[in-house]
Amino acid sequence: MTLYGENHPPPDDRPTVQVKAVNWPVEEPVHPAPVAPQGERRRSSRFRILLATGVATAVLGSVGAVAVWAYAGDVPRGTTVLGTELGGRSTTDAARELRAQLDRRAAELAAPIQVQVGERTAEINPADVGLTVDVDATVAAAAATGAHAVDRLVGSREVEPVVSVDVPKLEAALEKLVGKQGRKMTMPSITFDGTKPKVRHPKPSLSVDPEHSAEVVKAGWLSGQPVTVPLVENHPATSAEEVDRMVAELAKPAVAAPVKLSTDRGSVDIPPQAIAKGLRFKADKTGKLTPTVDMKQLRTAMGDRLNKVEVAPKDATMTISGGKPKVADGRVGQQVDISGLGDDLLEVLSRTEDRTLDAKLKPVQPKLTAEKLGGLGIKEKVSSFTTNFTGGLSSARSQNIVTIAEKVDGTVVLPGETFSLNGHTGERGYAQGYRDAPVILGGKLVPGVGGGTSQFTTTLFNATYYAGLEDVEHKPHSYYFSRYPAVIESTIFWPNLDFKFRNNTDYGVLIDTSYTGSSITVSIWSTKIWDSVKTEYGPRRNITSSKTVYLEPGPSCIPANGSQGFTQDAFRVIKKDGKVVKREKFSWTYDAEPRFICAKEPS
Which residue ranges does UniProt annotate as crossing the membrane (predicted)? Predict the structure, then answer.
């Protein structure tokens, strides 16, 4: 019985070829031969040809037989991996045998690897960094033929296994081992403090090289030997000398004088302060520093200087005339074309003379054209809300209400857009035409610029509320005022308290405002999508009584009658096709407003 073991592969169905040794003829010295008769010469030549042919045929046949024997399988005979003979096997059998060998060495290959980085040493578990032998790739390498066929036929070879490792995981493990020994790369930079260039020179990093470290660790894993991974310096692509050159040749000249921007409508100076805000020196991940100009930032830094040569576009507008929306066309503007100016400006900034840059003006369409505005579906009044005030239009409070109402009148909110009252009006101060009137501050009424704008905010909030538009942000007053609906009301204060709503419909929304000597009205025009929007109130609860507070008499003291505090819920009920499709809850707790008396407290 023949036994087959690790070094004796089982038989297959390929024919076995027996090969006899072949002795190559030894080349003899050449001596002049006696001249034979012509017939003998012909016979002698034919004999030598036949003999040579026979020998060559025998040799080639023998070589072929050896080749058949050597390559009787996918993997050439004599091929070993990790000391295991894989030669003469099919790739499937070779892979099976190699896996068996790896299983036998599993404990050895799972043993921690001792790794030293710099002055620190630690053990790394192979499984934690994905160290494995790629069996299929290794067998493929073993089956590959080499350039010297004869050496492959009669010799043996050891094929190194193909090892895989998870490079990011290995890098993380090594970086943890590096610890404080390493350092990150200091990227070069050039920034401006006002118009003074500030420089940061580059410094190299000190860390491990991921790819090189992977090869070292893979080799050490198979050999079972400790591994030393070197710390490598990686220098930024831009040197300290190059940084200094950029400062001398560009950064300093750039802000030494203005640049003249010339257009068909005249010229305007770009001041050094604006240049400093627009000129950027950006470093990529290799530390290469490149100068660029952020033209948008430069435009912003110039403020209103460009108004001298530019014409702002004007949106189309919509007003209500004769009970119907009417569209008025807008205006195309002209703006400096900043596209492509960056490279030209860089060239100009490095000069000390002839600092002029030619720029073209391009037409700028308004955001809202008459055609677009006309197609937004603004065709009917969807909701309207009115609140009343006293004192007539001559009072400061009434004037504030009218001022903010006129600022908002005619505003169009596109589908999906969010309207912010603070964002639309901006700061509401004396410069914007607002006056001092009572506002709630610190729990009491005091004179304050813009008093009364909260009444307009409440009116606008209710108009959008009953239009079914989405409430984004609002805050009711701390005290209840009977001139407003409970809970469904809102205050406003620049810049901390805002009112916002979102146009959550597929149609445009027009805000139309109007006023009389005693009232303010806000109407919402769009396309009606709801049958009705109503409010249902819950009962008032947690009722608290007001207290009497005596205040120092004087011009800043404003008396108040006081009011109860309470908590209440309000529900916005929206119906469509006769059914309730939305029911939204709004809740608020009002503090009890003290009864303020402008007098000294009785003893």
Answer: 49-72
If asked whether residues 363 and 418 sit together in one domain, one would say: no
Confidence of residue 17 (pLDDT cuts 50, 70, 90): very low
Same domain as 575, residue 454: yes
Decide: 472 and 501 in contact? Cβ < 8 Å: yes
Q: What pLDDT does residue 444 have?
A: 63
> Which residues touch 526 (CB under 8 Å, ≥6 apart)?
377, 378, 379, 380, 382, 467, 505, 507, 508, 509, 510
Residues facing 79 on adjacent strands: 157
- The helix/strand/coil state of 69 is helix
- Backbone φ and ψ for 5, nearest 5 degrees, come out as -130, -150
From CA 527, how far away is CA 357, in angstroms rounded? Answer: 50
- Same structural domain, 360 and 382: no
Query: Any idea what the CATH number is for the domain that residue 257 is in?
Result: 3.10.20
Same domain as 408, residue 341:
no
Cβ atoms of 289 and 190 closer than 8 Å = yes
Cα radius of gyration rounded to whole Å, the chain: 45
Mean pLDDT on 487-499: 94
Per-residue confidence band for 442, with pLDDT thresholds at 50, 70 and 90: low
- SS3 state of residue 462: helix
Residue 322 lies in a domain: yes
Share of the chain above pLDDT 90, in %: 69
Task: Name the one residue in this structure whose structure tokens are 């350092």.
Answer: 183
Determine the residue type at 200: R
Structure tokens at 95: 């892979």
Tell me: do 390 and 456 sit in the same domain: yes
Domain count, the chain: 2
> How many CB atoms within 10 Å of residue 201?
14
Question: What is the pTM (predicted TM-score) of this model?
Answer: 0.58
Element (H, E) at 264: none
What range defines the domain where residue 548 resides?
377-598
Q: In this predicted model, what pLDDT tens digit does every residue of 526-549 receive, in sequence order?
A: 999 999 999 999 999 999 998 888
369: which residues sit within 8 A by CB, 6+ positions away?
316, 329, 330
**Tally of residues, the chain:** 603
Kindly state whether residue 265 falls inside one of the protein's structural domains: yes
Chain Cα centroid distance, residue 555: 56
- The answer as to whether 552 is a domain residue is yes
More confident residue, 54 or 337: 337
Spatial distance between the Cα atoms of 500 and 172, rounded to a whole number of angstroms: 48
For the residues 482-488, what does the mean pLDDT come to? 94
Please tell me whether residues 368 and 381 are part of one structural domain.
Answer: no
Question: Is the previous residue joined to 447 through a cis bond, with omega within 30 degrees of 0?
Answer: no
Q: Determine, yes or no, domain membership for 233.
A: no
pLDDT band at 340 (very low <50, low <70, confident <90, very high): confident
**Whether residue 324 is found in the same domain as residue 473:** no
Same domain? 393 vs 457: yes
469-493 average pLDDT score: 95
Domain boundary among 335, 358, 373: 373
> CA angle, 296 as apex, 290 and 297 as ends, to 5°?
75
Q: Are 446 and 558 in contact (CB under 8 A)?
A: yes
- Long-range CB pairs of 301-307, under 8 A, 24+ apart, other chains included: 301/273, 301/274, 301/277, 302/268, 302/270, 302/271, 302/274, 305/268, 305/269, 305/270, 305/271, 305/274, 306/268, 306/335, 306/336
Distance CA(59)–CA(403), nearest Å, equals 112
Residue 66 has a pLDDT of 44
Please report where in the chains the tokens 């011009």 appear, as a residue.
555
